[in-house]
Amino acid sequence: MEQESGRGRRVTILDVARAAGVSKSTVSRILDDRLPHSRSPNAQKVRRIADELGYTRDVFASGLRQGRTNTVGVIVPRLTDTAMAVFFEAISHASDRRGKLAVVATTDHQPDGARRAVRNLVKRRVDGIIFAADRRDDPVVSWLDESEVPYVLALRREGGGDAAVGDDVLGGYLATRHLLDLGHTTIALLTGPEFASNARLRQDGFREAMEEQGAAIDPVLVGATDFTVDSAADAVHRMLDAGHEFSALFAATDNLAIGAMSALARRGKRVPDDVSVVGYNDIPLSAHLPVPLTSMRVPFEEIASNALELLEAKIDHRSVTGGVRTSTPSLIPRGSTRRVI
């Protein structure tokens, strides 16, 4: 994975050594980020020539393949997303029980951020990566495959590859079924960005339950978000501004549900008297809101354990049954939903 030269040939460490008039081992030592940074004229010359030639150190060959560190890299979109923070904590606990250290990196939902996160973790010589930021338009998974970095997907899954996930279709179905069973037929939906498989699958579950019931889905009452509280509030304001009434709302995450409840309160709508609300993930805050939130509980500890087991098998080159481990969510009813009177 070393940089290609202008003629299409990959620039190697030997090319840098020849141009600088030093040995290959000298170049390797000077360009090794793990060693003390030398400011000698010779070191500065080597770095300048490496930059001019377009050389990039192969962190995969010189890092992961040199030995085990008992360190696991975890990549999530944001730690301000409470569900992702809870998941990382679950990974950290599961790693600790196995005598490993979990290290987190974030992508901020950007493909370039994902590639940067992978490179930074590999430079720190993690033994493998748990990738919880998979997205439809992200080339990073293909890049990981080509690089032979041990990795597994978690929480989201686009295409193939070993993965530990929740049953998001079932979760979306059960959340919507709960509202339908309470007598609601006009139900709004807050979903996530199109690139997130978990959001799309929860929406699929919503549609399945609505179609099964024969309940109409109003396109105006389907609001896309970027998973933030503010985007959820904005989506609910747009629905209400359009004059489309609804008696219930299903949000694809608890953070979205919290944003929805805030917007409803600002518009004089009471939860659950005027609008019943169901969230997803059952983050710790959900039970402690002024109106405790009904939510789909995701078994993060189980998913974390499954992800680590799959990753350890890949690191050890062992075959393991069930390349995709799917965990079942469960509904936790609370005060934010009520039966239609």
TrEMBL record:
It comes from the Bacteria. PROSITE patterns: HTH_CROC1 (PS50943), HTH_LACI_1 (PS00356), HTH_LACI_2 (PS50932). Residues 11-66 form the HTH lacI-type domain. One of its GO terms (molecular function) is transcription cis-regulatory region binding. Residues 322-341 are annotated as: Disordered. Residues 12-60 form the HTH cro/C1-type domain. Keywords: DNA-binding, Transcription, Transcription regulation. It holds the Pfam family LacI. InterPro entries: Cro/C1-type_HTH (IPR001387), HTH_LacI (IPR000843), LacI/GalR-like_sensor (IPR046335), Lambda_DNA-bd_dom_sf (IPR010982), Peripla_BP_I (IPR028082). This is LacI family transcriptional regulator. It comes from Nesterenkonia xinjiangensis.
